[in-house]
Amino acid sequence: MPAFCLRILACVAVGFSTFTEVRGHEPAVLVAGDGQSWYKGNMHTHSHWSDGDDYLEAIAMWYRDQGYQFLVFTDHNVLAETEKWVKVAKTKGGRKAYDKLKEKFPNWVEERGEGDDLEVRLRQFVEVADRFNNPGEYLLVQGEEISDNHHGAPIHMNVHNILERIPPQGGRSVHETIENNVRAVQAQREATGQPMIVHLNHPNFGFAITAEDLLRVRGEKFFEVYNGHPSVHNHGDDEHPGTERIWDIVLAQRIGALGMPMMYGLAVDDGHSYHNIPSRASEPGRGWVVVLANELTPEALIESLEHGRFYASSGVKLKRIATDHDGLQVEVDAVPGETYTIEFVGTRSSTDLVGQPITGDDGEVRHVTHRYSDGIGEVLKKVEGTSARYDFEGDEYYVRARITSSALHPNPSDVGDHQQAWVQPSLGPAAPEEAEHVHD
């Protein structure tokens, strides 16, 4: 067994954590300038290497040409690092993707055979990165979507800046499956010294993951509050809460009851379909993160993400985010003709944090997020305008902000969605002291 694998096994055995844990937003002003820049990126992308319908290089070109500064490829349980030939006729993109590839990259495509036997060599990540990476302008990052399950329930997690593929780890429960995969990522990061992070994907895909499954996971600090795939139920349904509600339950429990670190919310595409845009498929350009960092490198991006120096968006652009011990302030980079609603969302220390399990007709507890007080994730203040501030009143566990534009999303995952942005939570004055200094 390679030394690297032995180091991973040893690390998992002792159960350490290497991910940076910090207080939920130390006082800071997030604004471009003085060596800091905003970098827009997508952290969930699929290609012909798994179940996407286009080639790595074509996808990289699309995001670059749409004004993104970074992109993470996250194909299912595979890294684009081996020699792989595919029959054009049998790829999801078929002849359409092939013809577009030949047009965009006339002297790049390696092929063999003809007719129904025509094959193309899939370019590896390093080849595409060498062609597209442009210091300070555009960056491709290698990732993997670890696609696991528990009794058929899909449990998917994206790893960013990965070095070696991590196979699904499994577990005796949904919670344990998530935690085992997190530990495998931690182990690789520790063994290699390479900065990398992991995030939980689309918790409502198949309604596989409840707030209770997620809230006690050690080492997990990111999840998708918005996913652009039309089948992931961002808004939930009559029985299952939406992802924002899950976020608030997790935050309230981790901060108010468990003394655990913050959970940050990401927005992503989960792109699979790159032709016939717009349509009702899982397409690019629906959700992204905007990270404030001092340079466009994986290391700088990961450091900023781990410290909450970013916001998530499905269309709204922010100019400035200020956090201090007294409150939270947001300023929108407004688009002419649009109006904005800024809502400050949080949970107060007087709120009952105990949830009630849901039982079926047989009296058995169902695998559904418990029912909690409406005080968890209540709107504490609402402002119509392009700038707003929330001042702590003394009893908040945390406060986050949601900004909604009057403009509809041009290509939404759910019909009728407006363009939005989500500001990461800040610990409030009622947060227990251990929440400020906890290390997993």
From TrEMBL:
Give the protein name, as stated in the record.
PHP domain-containing protein
Signal peptide range in chain numbering: none
Which stretches are annotated as coiled coil? none
What is an example of a GO molecular function annotated in this UniProt entry?
A: 5'-3' DNA exonuclease activity
On the tree of life, the source organism's domain of life is Bacteria
Organism whose genome encodes this protein: Aeoliella straminimaris
